[in-house]
Amino acid sequence: MGFADLLDEVGGFGRYQWLHVTLISLPGLLMASQNLLNNFVSGIPEHHCSLLSNYSVHNLSHYQLFRAFIPLDSSGNKLDGCRRYVEPQWQLLGANSSANASHAQTEECLDGWTYDRSEFLATTVSEVMTRNLLIVLTGAIIYGGLSDRFGRRSVLIWSYLQLGVLGCSAALSPSYSAYCVFRFLSGMAVSGVILNGVSLKVEWIPTKERTIVGTLTSFFFTFGQMILAGLAYWLRDWRKLQVVTCAPQFLFFAYSWWYSESARWLVLNRRSDEALKSLHRVARINGKPEMIDKLTLEVLHSHMKKEIESSHSSFTAYDLLKTKGMRRISICLIAVWFSTSFAYYGLAMDLQKFGVSIYLMQIIFGAVDFPAKLLALGMLSYLGRRVSQAACLFLSALVIFTNIFVPTDMQTIRTTLACLGKGFTSASFTTVYLYTGELYPTVIRQTGMGFVSTFARVGSMAAPAVLILDEVLPALPSVVYGGAAVLAGFFACFLPETLNVPLPDTIEDVEEKCCQSQVVQYHKYLSESKNSKKKNPKHLSTLYLY
């Protein structure tokens, strides 16, 4: 008997769970906006050197000045948007006198740049002359630890408020430094919303519904990507876009007080009275009022006696690596989270290179998630978590490597393969969010999710930097992205399977399951050794990764 049995008794996946999951998932529509906002907020518009000089007083059109100052190739395209002629090449205004311009001396843009406003009316690039924003990696650790100490609900509510206030404040930033500070702090809140939302959903869902609920709720993020493209196309101004994507957080903050705290967490933190009230509330909403009298503190403690006895007051990130089973899980998940995010954002955050409208490309990248996540749902339900995770990573690597051999002039095929690769990495993200929540025990689940997802932030921060390698060798970024996915796929093969397995509540539960897995492997090894007449238990150590 365990907490999973209590959930079944109070209605299983009933009315409360439907409302609970839906309300927590709704903010996911705007989480994609927060993660991919830089594609539009810091998009790089077409630009050239400003034509601010004494020559601008001549009675000449902007195009004539542009033609006289900006180096162009034979097709009329800019050679370099960051250089101009030192002296105006008036001869280029004639019909047949462009031959001598190639030897003219050029200089850097001394008077700034002029930006094309047809695609973006205003971005942080055109206002502050830079595009890089450091992606937050501290929020996952901070809010993961706080959640295991103060509860999932409390930290989630605070994260909504923090994201709403600081996200809207970023739109009013007078300088790029202030903007970075607000975006950094609101980025921390994004980690709090995503990680606590996942745990609070998982800990109230019965075992058999976890797969389908975890996968289907990830579609909120997919819809969010497409909503972002529509909002960005409509607004065309980074300040307005910032406000529109952050203001709804106040609505989420208002209704989040309805959430019930995780009863698992409450029991393991010696707050059984509150856990019992939450369970009674769930039973009443699920149409099981008779359980209110039947479910007492004695019944609750009898269901979770072992978990209560083995739990203690607090855990730290060190506990994720202290024991063999936890260490194996954490090391493998670090590799999977890093590589999934590394490849995902490497493809998703550089949409302008595809030669297609950035708005259309964002919609395409969102739409490709639908078949990818449906594929993930089928794999998770029938093949299990481990095979699904490894397969998604290997398939994404295969697509990325294939794109290396497609000629650059075959842009349609390259874009199609990039979208396919993004679909597989998205399916990998869906899997790893569900998988991580099932692997770590309740007493340290949020600390664990925060710890390993921090490496996803490292991966997303490193992804754009890798694109610089194409100046050395055009295929090099794809080799790095694909190689990381292959390596993570092998690490995923060493994770324990969690399909239809009850959630672990304590570290002892995890270690016990790992020991059971070792016993099964050991008996399998002995059976194979007996058949082959080779009884050498020393080789058993090769089966495990510690």
From TrEMBL:
Membrane keyword on record: yes
Record-annotated Major facilitator superfamily (MFS) profile domain positions: 69-500
Pfam family, one: Sugar_tr
InterPro entries to which the protein is assigned, alphabetical: MFS_dom, MFS_sugar_transport-like, MFS_trans_sf
GO terms, molecular function: transmembrane transporter activity
Main localization, broad class: membrane
Membrane-spanning parts: 128-146, 155-176, 182-200, 212-235, 241-260, 329-347, 359-380, 387-406, 475-495
GO cellular component, one term: basal plasma membrane
Record PROSITE patterns: MFS
The name this protein goes by in its record: Solute carrier family 22 member 6
Organism (species): Mastacembelus armatus (zig-zag eel)
High-level lineage: Eukaryota, Metazoa, Chordata, Craniata, Vertebrata
